[in-house]
Amino acid sequence: MPRKHLSGVDRRDQMVEQAIELFAQKGFALTTRELARELHITQPLLYRYFPSKQELIEQVYERVFLSRWNPLWEVWLADRSRPFRDRLVQYFVDYTQAILTSEWVRIFLYAGLQDPSLNQRYLQMLHERIFRILSQELHYDLGREQALTSDQAMLENEAWWGLHSSFFYMGVRKWVYQLEVPDELDAVIAYRVDAFLDGLR
After folding, report:
1. What is the DSSP letter of 176?
2. Confidence of residue 2 (pLDDT cuts 50, 70, 90)
3. pTM above 0.85, yes or no
4. Cβ-count burial of 113 within 10 angstroms (0-12 exposed, 13-18 middle, 19+ buried)?
5. Which of 1, 26, 51, 126 has the fewest C-beta atoms under 10 angstroms from its C-beta?
6. Domain 8-63 falls in which CATH fold?
C-alpha cells in the first residue's frame, strides 16, 4: 500500500504527537539524533519542522498542558450563585479529567527533573489564575474580612498546594508506581473537598 502523503501541517502535527508519546516514555534527555531515530525520520527532516529541540518541546508543552487548560475553571470558581463547596468539586472533577493521563503525569515529572522551567511556568499560571480565586472565595465563604498576616497567607497557600497536588499524586501512583487508584474519582474528590473545608471552619 502506498504511503499516505501528508501536508506539512499534518506532518508537523504527527511529529508532535509522536514526541509526546516518546517524551512520556523516555523524558527530555534524548539528543536530536536519537529523537529522529525514535520518530523514524531523518535528522534533517526533524530540523526542517523544528529548528531546535527546544521548539519541539515547546510544542509538546502547548499540546499537553496549555491546550487542556479550561478557561471555564475560573468562571466556575468565581460564581457566587452556587455554594463554594460545589464549585470546588466541579473544578476538581474537570481538572482531574484534564490532567490525569499517562502522558500528562509522566511528562510533567520528567520536565521537573530535566527542564523545570516548564513546570514553573505551568505552576505559576495555576497559582495566579486559580489559587488567587480559591483564596478569595474561601474568605468570602467563611465571612472573613480581615486581611491575613504573611504567615497566615503562607499557611493557607500551602494548604491549597496540598489539596491540589493530592489529585496529581493519584496519577503518580497509577502511571509511575503502577498502583491501583479508583476508577471513579468524583466521590474521592467530594470527600477530600469536604474534609478540607471542614478543617478550615
Report:
1. T
2. very low
3. yes
4. exposed
5. 1
6. Arc Repressor Mutant, subunit A (1.10.10)
Is the Cβ–Cβ distance between 135 and 95 less than 8 Å?
no
DSSP annotation of 88 reads H
Q: Which three cell numbers stand for residue 106?
A: 509522566
> What's the pLDDT score for residue 8?
79
pLDDT tens track for 147-161? 889 999 999 999 999
pLDDT at residue 1 is higher than 50: no
- The C-alpha cell at 9 is 501541517
* CA distances (Å), origin 66, targets 45, 59, 92, 116, 175: 26, 10, 17, 16, 21
Answer whether residue 36 shows pLDDT above 50: yes
